[in-house]
Fold this sequence. Notes:
Layout: E1 2-7, H1 20-27, E2 32-37, E3 50-51, E4 61-62, H2 64-75, E5 81-91, H3 94-101, E6 105-110, E7 115-116, H4 118-124, E8 127-130, H5 140-151, H6 199-217, H7 229-250
Parallel strand pairs: 1-2, 1-6, 4-7, 5-6, 5-8
Antiparallel strand pairs: 3-4
Helix pairs in contact: 2-4, 3-5, 6-7
The protein binds ligand 4FV.
Ligand 4FV is lined by residues 85-87, 111-112, 115, 130-132, 134-136, 138-139, 142.
Amino acid sequence: MRIDVLTLFPDMFTVPMNESMMWKARDRHILELYTHNIRDYALDKHHVVDDTPYGGGGGMVLKPDVVVRAIEDVKGVSKARVILLSPQGSVFNHAKAVELSQQDHFILVCGHYEGFDERIRQLAIDEEISIGDYVLTGGELAAMVVIDAVVRQIPGVLGAEGGADRDSHADGLLEGPHYTRPAEFRGLGVPEILTGGHHEAMTQWRREQAIRRTWQQRPELLRSAPLTESERYFLATLARESAEDCQERMM
Ligand code: 4FV
């Protein structure tokens, strides 16, 4: 997979994109990642990339001529999808990460200041992604979040140690609890079911814990999570328990 990033701060990518899983993916040529400095496409002697907004109002806006020139140069004749990181985009999630992990090539455009001249969207952007409903100083951190979440979905990137298929959200649920040695820590032990060696029982326990945690933390996810009949029954018992808890608390 090839990912090109257009940014005013390419050095921000140096360390995070050369560590751990990212380094392995690049070292094994599963991923080709290139950063391009948008300022290199500002042709005036001061390499100006932003200007004051028409109609007044504070802040600076990224210039359309510079950013579109950068996008068109990096895209060239490729069919790469051009993705803008901004708070106006559709909120990034697991499904989008899996979708992008099936692309051969895409380009991420990182903003700064007040944002982009609107004509950049009209002329050169295929899609807009937001990593969440808050405002960052720049799109770089958002781009790194997207790259990390996408690359770990590429088959073969997460070797034996981690299967992205076991991740939270991979099956529409949050992950259940994990335990490792020591068997006891500060008086807290490990659920016996996990040391009993009964794999089927452990698998069912893990699913139930994932359903319980999703019910407690993100119940809205359960609307679309694929559950078996017995898991739906388990969920109903959780709902009944919480209703009873509520009643008791109101006594
Ligand atoms: C953002 C987000 C984000 C807005 C102005 C950078 C900043 C400047 N990007 N998800 N949330 N971007 O806040 O992706 O362009």
